[in-house]
Amino acid sequence: MTKEKAKPVNLNSIVKSLKETYGSLKVASQDPPSEEYISTGNLAFDCALDGGMAWGHVGELLGMSQSGKTTIMQIMLADAQKKYNAIGVWADRENAWHNGRAESLGVDLDRVIVLKPQDIPEVTQWTQFLQDILPKLSRDPNQYIFIAMDSVAAFDDPTKADKSDMGKKAQQVHRLFRKILPLVHKKAMFLFTNHRTFKIGVLFGDPETSTGGEGTKFYPSYRIKLDNRKAIIDPTKGGENIGNWISVYIIKTRSGPSHREILLHHLYDSGIDYFGGYARMLVKRNYLEPKNKSEFKSFKQTTVTYKDASFSEWDIEKKLKDFPELLFDKYPEYKMEEKNEV
Protein backbone atom coordinates (compact mmCIF):
# COMPACT_ATOMS: atom_id res chain seq x y z
CA MET A 1 0.00 0.00 0.00
CA THR A 2 1.21 3.47 -0.84
CA LYS A 3 0.78 6.24 1.66
CA GLU A 4 -1.26 9.21 0.55
CA LYS A 5 0.62 12.47 0.47
CA ALA A 6 -0.45 14.82 3.23
CA LYS A 7 -2.15 17.98 2.07
CA PRO A 8 0.03 21.07 2.49
CA VAL A 9 -0.86 23.22 5.48
CA ASN A 10 -2.43 26.53 4.53
CA LEU A 11 -0.49 28.94 6.74
CA ASN A 12 -2.43 31.95 5.52
CA SER A 13 -5.72 30.55 6.76
CA ILE A 14 -4.19 29.68 10.15
CA VAL A 15 -2.76 33.19 10.51
CA LYS A 16 -6.09 34.72 9.50
CA SER A 17 -7.97 32.71 12.11
CA LEU A 18 -5.61 33.83 14.90
CA LYS A 19 -5.08 37.42 13.74
CA GLU A 20 -7.56 38.95 16.17
CA THR A 21 -5.84 37.34 19.15
CA TYR A 22 -2.24 37.78 18.00
CA GLY A 23 -2.10 41.00 16.03
CA SER A 24 1.56 40.69 15.01
CA LEU A 25 1.13 37.20 13.54
CA LYS A 26 2.32 37.00 9.90
CA VAL A 27 3.83 34.54 7.49
CA ALA A 28 7.54 35.42 7.38
CA SER A 29 7.58 36.05 3.62
CA GLN A 30 4.83 38.66 4.05
CA ASP A 31 6.87 40.61 6.60
CA PRO A 32 9.99 41.84 4.77
CA PRO A 33 12.86 43.33 6.77
CA SER A 34 13.12 47.08 7.14
CA GLU A 35 14.93 48.88 4.32
CA GLU A 36 14.97 52.15 6.25
CA TYR A 37 18.17 52.98 8.11
CA ILE A 38 19.40 55.76 10.36
CA SER A 39 22.91 57.01 9.65
CA THR A 40 25.48 56.97 12.44
CA GLY A 41 27.01 60.17 11.08
CA ASN A 42 30.12 58.41 9.78
CA LEU A 43 30.48 56.74 6.37
CA ALA A 44 32.84 53.97 7.52
CA PHE A 45 30.56 53.21 10.48
CA ASP A 46 27.51 53.02 8.19
CA CYS A 47 29.40 50.73 5.81
CA ALA A 48 30.41 48.40 8.65
CA LEU A 49 26.71 48.13 9.57
CA ASP A 50 25.80 47.62 5.88
CA GLY A 51 23.72 50.79 5.73
CA GLY A 52 23.31 52.06 9.29
CA MET A 53 20.88 51.05 12.05
CA ALA A 54 17.47 49.82 10.96
CA TRP A 55 14.21 51.03 12.46
CA GLY A 56 12.33 48.63 14.70
CA HIS A 57 15.34 47.52 16.75
CA VAL A 58 17.19 48.18 20.01
CA GLY A 59 20.80 49.39 19.96
CA GLU A 60 23.51 49.66 22.64
CA LEU A 61 26.56 51.93 22.55
CA LEU A 62 29.06 50.53 25.02
CA GLY A 63 32.07 52.68 25.80
CA MET A 64 34.22 54.58 28.26
CA SER A 65 34.14 58.29 29.01
CA GLN A 66 34.60 60.64 26.02
CA SER A 67 34.26 57.81 23.50
CA GLY A 68 31.49 59.66 21.61
CA LYS A 69 28.43 57.74 22.82
CA THR A 70 26.15 60.75 23.39
CA THR A 71 27.43 62.52 20.27
CA ILE A 72 26.65 59.52 18.06
CA MET A 73 23.14 59.25 19.51
CA GLN A 74 22.46 62.95 18.90
CA ILE A 75 23.73 62.72 15.31
CA MET A 76 21.48 59.71 14.76
CA LEU A 77 18.52 61.60 16.25
CA ALA A 78 19.22 64.51 13.86
CA ASP A 79 19.33 62.11 10.90
CA ALA A 80 16.07 60.44 11.99
CA GLN A 81 14.39 63.85 12.19
CA LYS A 82 15.73 64.99 8.82
CA LYS A 83 14.91 61.84 6.85
CA TYR A 84 11.81 60.56 8.65
CA ASN A 85 10.46 63.58 10.56
CA ALA A 86 10.90 61.55 13.76
CA ILE A 87 10.03 62.63 17.29
CA GLY A 88 12.79 62.17 19.86
CA VAL A 89 12.29 60.97 23.44
CA TRP A 90 15.50 61.49 25.40
CA ALA A 91 16.15 60.29 28.96
CA ASP A 92 18.94 62.58 30.18
CA ARG A 93 19.84 60.48 33.20
CA GLU A 94 23.41 61.80 33.28
CA ASN A 95 22.38 65.47 32.90
CA ALA A 96 24.54 65.58 29.76
CA TRP A 97 21.97 67.09 27.36
CA HIS A 98 22.90 70.58 26.17
CA ASN A 99 20.62 72.41 23.74
CA GLY A 100 23.47 74.27 22.02
CA ARG A 101 25.50 71.12 21.46
CA ALA A 102 22.50 69.14 20.19
CA GLU A 103 21.47 71.96 17.85
CA SER A 104 25.01 72.24 16.45
CA LEU A 105 24.80 68.54 15.53
CA GLY A 106 21.57 69.14 13.61
CA VAL A 107 18.90 68.23 16.18
CA ASP A 108 15.53 70.00 15.86
CA LEU A 109 14.86 70.95 19.49
CA ASP A 110 11.14 71.49 18.83
CA ARG A 111 10.75 67.77 18.09
CA VAL A 112 12.50 66.33 21.15
CA ILE A 113 11.04 65.52 24.56
CA VAL A 114 13.78 65.61 27.21
CA LEU A 115 13.30 63.98 30.60
CA LYS A 116 15.70 65.17 33.31
CA PRO A 117 17.31 63.06 36.09
CA GLN A 118 15.08 64.24 38.94
CA ASP A 119 12.05 62.62 37.27
CA ILE A 120 13.66 59.23 36.53
CA PRO A 121 15.99 58.17 39.33
CA GLU A 122 15.11 54.48 38.91
CA VAL A 123 14.71 52.08 35.99
CA THR A 124 11.14 51.31 36.99
CA GLN A 125 10.16 54.97 36.67
CA TRP A 126 11.67 55.25 33.20
CA THR A 127 9.82 52.06 32.22
CA GLN A 128 6.53 53.55 33.42
CA PHE A 129 7.24 56.82 31.57
CA LEU A 130 7.74 54.97 28.27
CA GLN A 131 4.58 52.95 28.83
CA ASP A 132 2.72 56.23 29.37
CA ILE A 133 4.13 58.27 26.49
CA LEU A 134 4.74 55.79 23.65
CA PRO A 135 1.04 54.94 23.08
CA LYS A 136 0.32 58.69 22.83
CA LEU A 137 3.10 59.22 20.27
CA SER A 138 2.10 56.10 18.31
CA ARG A 139 -1.47 57.16 17.59
CA ASP A 140 -0.34 58.05 14.08
CA PRO A 141 0.86 54.75 12.56
CA ASN A 142 3.22 56.65 10.23
CA GLN A 143 5.01 58.51 13.05
CA TYR A 144 8.66 57.59 13.59
CA ILE A 145 9.90 57.65 17.20
CA PHE A 146 13.54 57.78 18.30
CA ILE A 147 13.96 56.76 21.97
CA ALA A 148 17.31 57.42 23.67
CA MET A 149 18.42 56.50 27.19
CA ASP A 150 21.66 58.16 28.31
CA SER A 151 22.59 56.07 30.12
CA VAL A 152 21.32 52.80 31.57
CA ALA A 153 24.35 52.75 33.88
CA ALA A 154 23.38 56.05 35.54
CA PHE A 155 20.12 54.91 37.10
CA ASP A 156 20.07 54.82 40.86
CA ASP A 157 19.96 51.47 42.56
CA PRO A 158 17.38 51.63 45.39
CA THR A 159 19.00 48.60 47.03
CA LYS A 160 22.59 49.91 47.10
CA ALA A 161 22.41 50.16 50.89
CA ASP A 162 21.28 46.55 51.08
CA LYS A 163 24.24 44.47 49.97
CA SER A 164 22.31 41.26 50.52
CA ASP A 165 20.51 41.65 47.18
CA MET A 166 23.02 42.80 44.57
CA GLY A 167 20.97 41.48 41.65
CA LYS A 168 17.94 43.71 42.03
CA LYS A 169 19.13 46.36 39.56
CA ALA A 170 19.80 43.66 36.97
CA GLN A 171 16.27 42.38 37.53
CA GLN A 172 14.93 45.90 36.97
CA VAL A 173 16.84 46.18 33.68
CA HIS A 174 15.41 42.84 32.53
CA ARG A 175 11.90 44.04 33.36
CA LEU A 176 12.56 47.28 31.48
CA PHE A 177 13.34 45.50 28.22
CA ARG A 178 10.59 42.92 28.58
CA LYS A 179 8.00 45.68 28.97
CA ILE A 180 9.43 48.10 26.41
CA LEU A 181 10.38 45.73 23.56
CA PRO A 182 6.73 45.10 22.56
CA LEU A 183 6.35 48.89 22.18
CA VAL A 184 9.33 49.21 19.80
CA HIS A 185 7.40 48.85 16.54
CA LYS A 186 8.74 49.07 12.98
CA LYS A 187 8.82 52.86 13.03
CA ALA A 188 10.57 53.16 16.39
CA MET A 189 14.12 52.77 17.63
CA PHE A 190 15.34 52.38 21.20
CA LEU A 191 19.00 53.34 21.61
CA PHE A 192 20.84 53.44 24.93
CA THR A 193 24.37 54.01 26.17
CA ASN A 194 26.23 51.89 28.69
CA HIS A 195 29.51 52.51 30.50
CA ARG A 196 32.52 50.24 30.40
CA THR A 197 34.86 49.98 33.35
CA PHE A 198 37.27 47.52 34.93
CA LYS A 199 37.00 45.22 37.92
CA ILE A 200 39.46 45.80 40.73
CA GLY A 201 41.93 43.08 41.71
CA VAL A 202 41.35 40.80 38.70
CA LEU A 203 44.60 39.00 37.83
CA PHE A 204 43.27 36.39 35.40
CA GLY A 205 40.57 36.57 32.76
CA ASP A 206 38.83 39.60 31.34
CA PRO A 207 38.76 42.46 33.88
CA GLU A 208 36.32 44.51 31.79
CA THR A 209 32.70 44.94 32.86
CA SER A 210 29.79 47.32 32.30
CA THR A 211 28.31 49.39 35.10
CA GLY A 212 24.85 49.01 33.57
CA GLY A 213 24.91 45.30 34.34
CA GLU A 214 25.48 42.20 32.24
CA GLY A 215 21.77 41.73 31.49
CA THR A 216 21.71 44.45 28.84
CA LYS A 217 23.64 42.35 26.30
CA PHE A 218 20.77 39.96 25.66
CA TYR A 219 18.23 42.45 24.30
CA PRO A 220 19.83 44.80 21.72
CA SER A 221 19.94 43.89 18.04
CA TYR A 222 22.94 46.21 17.71
CA ARG A 223 25.81 46.15 20.22
CA ILE A 224 28.66 48.57 19.49
CA LYS A 225 31.83 48.85 21.59
CA LEU A 226 33.69 52.17 21.48
CA ASP A 227 37.32 52.65 22.52
CA ASN A 228 39.52 55.75 22.69
CA ARG A 229 42.62 55.02 20.62
CA LYS A 230 44.67 58.16 19.98
CA ALA A 231 44.42 61.88 20.72
CA ILE A 232 44.18 64.16 17.68
CA ILE A 233 46.65 67.06 18.02
CA ASP A 234 46.43 70.21 15.90
CA PRO A 235 49.99 71.54 15.36
CA THR A 236 48.61 74.81 13.95
CA LYS A 237 47.02 75.53 17.34
CA GLY A 238 50.10 75.01 19.46
CA GLY A 239 49.61 71.26 19.86
CA GLU A 240 46.02 71.58 21.13
CA ASN A 241 44.08 68.35 21.65
CA ILE A 242 41.07 68.77 19.33
CA GLY A 243 39.65 65.26 19.44
CA ASN A 244 40.45 61.57 19.50
CA TRP A 245 40.46 58.55 17.25
CA ILE A 246 37.81 56.03 18.27
CA SER A 247 37.82 52.31 17.59
CA VAL A 248 34.33 51.04 16.74
CA TYR A 249 33.88 47.29 17.21
CA ILE A 250 30.57 45.75 16.18
CA ILE A 251 29.82 43.01 18.68
CA LYS A 252 26.40 42.20 17.26
CA THR A 253 24.28 43.47 14.38
CA ARG A 254 21.20 42.41 12.44
CA SER A 255 22.01 44.30 9.23
CA GLY A 256 25.32 42.61 8.39
CA PRO A 257 28.07 40.34 9.74
CA SER A 258 29.29 40.97 13.28
CA HIS A 259 32.85 41.51 14.55
CA ARG A 260 33.81 44.22 12.09
CA GLU A 261 36.02 47.02 13.35
CA ILE A 262 36.59 50.50 11.95
CA LEU A 263 38.24 53.71 13.14
CA LEU A 264 36.67 57.16 13.13
CA HIS A 265 37.67 60.49 14.55
CA HIS A 266 35.66 62.40 17.11
CA LEU A 267 36.27 66.16 17.04
CA TYR A 268 35.28 67.95 20.22
CA ASP A 269 33.92 71.07 18.50
CA SER A 270 32.11 69.58 15.50
CA GLY A 271 31.35 65.99 16.52
CA ILE A 272 31.89 62.88 14.38
CA ASP A 273 33.43 63.64 10.99
CA TYR A 274 31.44 61.94 8.21
CA PHE A 275 34.51 60.85 6.21
CA GLY A 276 36.75 60.31 9.24
CA GLY A 277 38.39 56.89 9.14
CA TYR A 278 37.00 56.04 5.70
CA ALA A 279 40.49 55.96 4.17
CA ARG A 280 41.62 53.63 6.97
CA MET A 281 38.75 51.27 6.17
CA LEU A 282 39.85 51.24 2.51
CA VAL A 283 43.41 50.50 3.63
CA LYS A 284 42.14 47.60 5.74
CA ARG A 285 40.17 46.26 2.75
CA ASN A 286 43.27 46.61 0.53
CA TYR A 287 41.96 49.37 -1.75
CA LEU A 288 44.49 51.99 -0.60
CA GLU A 289 48.15 51.50 0.27
CA PRO A 290 49.72 53.46 3.16
CA LYS A 291 53.08 55.05 2.44
CA ASN A 292 54.47 53.58 5.66
CA LYS A 293 52.36 50.81 7.19
CA SER A 294 53.74 50.92 10.73
CA GLU A 295 53.60 54.71 11.02
CA PHE A 296 50.14 54.83 9.44
CA LYS A 297 48.89 52.24 11.90
CA SER A 298 50.23 54.28 14.84
CA PHE A 299 48.70 57.52 13.42
CA LYS A 300 52.16 59.11 12.96
CA GLN A 301 51.62 59.78 9.26
CA THR A 302 48.56 59.92 7.00
CA THR A 303 49.77 59.49 3.41
CA VAL A 304 48.08 56.81 1.26
CA THR A 305 48.43 55.90 -2.41
CA TYR A 306 45.92 54.80 -5.04
CA LYS A 307 46.99 54.05 -8.60
CA ASP A 308 49.45 56.89 -9.35
CA ALA A 309 47.98 59.34 -6.80
CA SER A 310 49.39 60.07 -3.37
CA PHE A 311 47.33 62.01 -0.83
CA SER A 312 46.53 62.44 2.87
CA GLU A 313 43.72 60.44 4.44
CA TRP A 314 42.25 63.78 5.57
CA ASP A 315 41.65 64.62 1.88
CA ILE A 316 39.64 61.46 1.14
CA GLU A 317 36.40 63.41 0.55
CA LYS A 318 37.97 65.38 -2.31
CA LYS A 319 39.63 62.30 -3.78
CA LEU A 320 36.33 60.40 -3.93
CA LYS A 321 35.27 62.84 -6.66
CA ASP A 322 38.34 61.85 -8.67
CA PHE A 323 37.96 58.14 -7.88
CA PRO A 324 34.20 57.43 -7.51
CA GLU A 325 34.87 53.69 -7.58
CA LEU A 326 36.17 54.05 -4.00
CA LEU A 327 32.80 55.24 -2.68
CA PHE A 328 30.85 52.38 -1.06
CA ASP A 329 27.51 52.33 0.74
CA LYS A 330 28.19 48.91 2.28
CA TYR A 331 31.28 47.22 3.68
CA PRO A 332 33.53 46.52 0.66
CA GLU A 333 34.72 43.05 -0.18
CA TYR A 334 38.40 42.46 0.47
CA LYS A 335 40.34 43.36 -2.65
CA MET A 336 42.66 40.53 -3.63
CA GLU A 337 46.12 41.28 -4.96
CA GLU A 338 46.25 41.32 -8.74
CA LYS A 339 48.78 38.85 -10.07
CA ASN A 340 50.87 39.91 -13.02
CA GLU A 341 50.89 37.32 -15.76
CA VAL A 342 54.30 36.52 -17.21
Layout: helices, strands, pairs:
Elements: H1 11-18, E1 37-38, H2 43-48, E2 53-54, E3 58-63, H3 69-84, E4 87-92, H4 99-104, E5 112-115, H5 123-137, E6 145-150, H6 168-180, E7 188-198, E8 208-210, E9 222-234, E10 240-252, E11 261-267, E12 271-272, H7 278-284, E13 289-290, H8 293-297, E14 303-306, E15 309-312, H9 316-322
Parallel strand pairs: 3-7, 3-9, 4-5, 4-6, 6-7
Antiparallel strand pairs: 1-2, 7-8, 9-10, 10-11, 11-12, 13-14, 14-15
Helix pairs in contact: 5-6
Textual characterization of the structure:
- The protein is α/β, with parallel strands linked by helices.
- It folds into two domains: 34-276, Rossmann fold (3-Layer(aba) Sandwich); 278-342, no CATH class.
- The protein has nine helices and 15 strands.
- It has helices spanning 11-18, 43-48, 69-84, 99-104, 123-137, 168-180, 278-284, 293-297, 316-322, and strands at 37-38, 53-54, 58-63, 87-92, 112-115, 145-150, 188-198, 208-210, 222-234, 240-252, 261-267, 271-272, 289-290, 303-306, 309-312.
- The strands form three sheets. Strands 3, 4, 5, 6, 7, 8, 9, 10, 11 and 12 form a ten-stranded mixed sheet that branches. A three-stranded antiparallel sheet has the order 13-14-15, with no helix packed on it.
- Helix 6 links the parallel strand 6 and strand 7.
- The mean pLDDT is 87.
Defining key terms:
3-stranded antiparallel beta sheet, alpha/beta, 25% strand, globular, 342 residues, Rossmann fold, 15 strands
